[in-house]
Amino acid sequence: HGIVNILGCALWSGALVEAFPRFDAHIVLPRVAEGAYTLFMAVPTIYSKLTSLLEKSSPENDAIIRGFASLRLMVSGSAALPASLHRRWADLTGQVLLERYGMTETGMMISNPFHGERRSGAVGQPLPGVEIRLRGEQGEIITTDGEPGEIQARGPAIFSEYWRRPEATAESFEDGWFRTGDMAVRETGYYRILGRLSVDIIKSGGYKLSALEIEAALLDHPAIRECAVVGLEDETWGETVAVAAALESGVETFALEDLQQWARTACPPTSFRVVCSSWTACRATPWAR
């Protein structure tokens, strides 16, 4: 995302890149207000922080919002962008963030279009020259919408091997298809990432629950500003869902029972019964983290 998509592509195109040691809103946002940029790329955490900051009305923030609205393109990458944040940013700035999907081993594989529908919660469609398929847990190739499977890819941009790691290379390919280790579903041509098979898929009571999908649903709750979902070992269920969340300003307390009741209708159907088996309210980390 940083070296190839931002720095490499910009320099190849002859564009000017302003580089900073780290993201500093006090430095970057005045430049946005001045109209210094035409393209802005950031990770979802930065967009979340910016949204919370810019939703507070002030003349300075109004100028920054106008600066963002005038950009040619805004992109989110490096992590899944919650659909709720995608919508909030569009409502705030008029900019519909372009989200896409790739890896170090593959470059960009899937993307929402520059012209056309940029679907919230989805990473888009395969790019030209890239073939994508979903492989089910039993080895079947998934051809219907809504069925989860591991993303596998092939094409001229896919790497050929891990340097001097033949065993890792052999484990990563299946009949010429690269196994990404990411789970997704296809919905009317667009792919939606469910998470890493190794860490983001929670196995509970025979169901496979996407931590990312549950997080996205919880972010729609008016009391929750940010959250993280993980699986905890459980003798009965195998794993249960645990949530850590930063609450919106002004929300002092929030009961576990209230969240569980709300989650029954808001979260994915198979996860409502186990979501938030444990609950921790926490403070958000600083800008620099």
Which key phrases capture this entry?
289 residues, alpha+beta, Rossmann fold, Luciferase, domain 3, GMP Synthetase, Chain A, domain 3, 6-stranded antiparallel sheet, 5-stranded mixed sheet, 16 strands, globular
Walkthrough of the structure:
By secondary structure, this protein is of the alpha+beta class. The protein has three domains: 2-96, Rossmann fold, CATH 3.40.50; 125-194, Luciferase, domain 3; 201-282, ANL, C-terminal domain (GMP Synthetase, Chain A, domain 3). The chain is built from eight helices and 16 strands. It has helices at 2-12, 25-33, 44-54, 59-69, 83-93, 166-172, 211-218, 256-266; strands spanning 39-42, 73-76, 98-103, 107-111, 125-126, 131-135, 141-142, 149-154, 173-174, 177-187, 190-196, 201-204, 207-210, 224-234, 238-247, 278-282. Strands 6, 7, 8, 9, 10 and 11 form a six-stranded antiparallel β-sheet that branches. Helix 3 crosses helix 5 (83-93). The longest helix is centred in the first third of the chain and has 11 residues, at 2-12. The radius of gyration is 20 Å and the shape is globular.
Low-confidence residue ranges: none
The termini sit apart by 18 Å
Number of strands: 16
How would you state the average pLDDT, rounded?
A: 89
Radius of gyration, in angstroms, nearest whole number: 20 Å
Question: Structural class of the helix and strand makeup?
Answer: alpha+beta
CATH hierarchy class name of the largest domain: Alpha Beta
What shape does the CA trace take?
globular
Topology pattern, helix = H, strand = E:
HHEHHEHEEEEEEHEEEEEHEEHE
Number of helices: 8
Relative strand content: 25-35%
Tell me the CATH topology of the largest domain: Rossmann fold
The CATH architecture category of the largest domain equals: 3-Layer(aba) Sandwich
The total tally of domains equals 3
Provide the helix percentage. 25-40%
Largest sheet: 6 strands, antiparallel
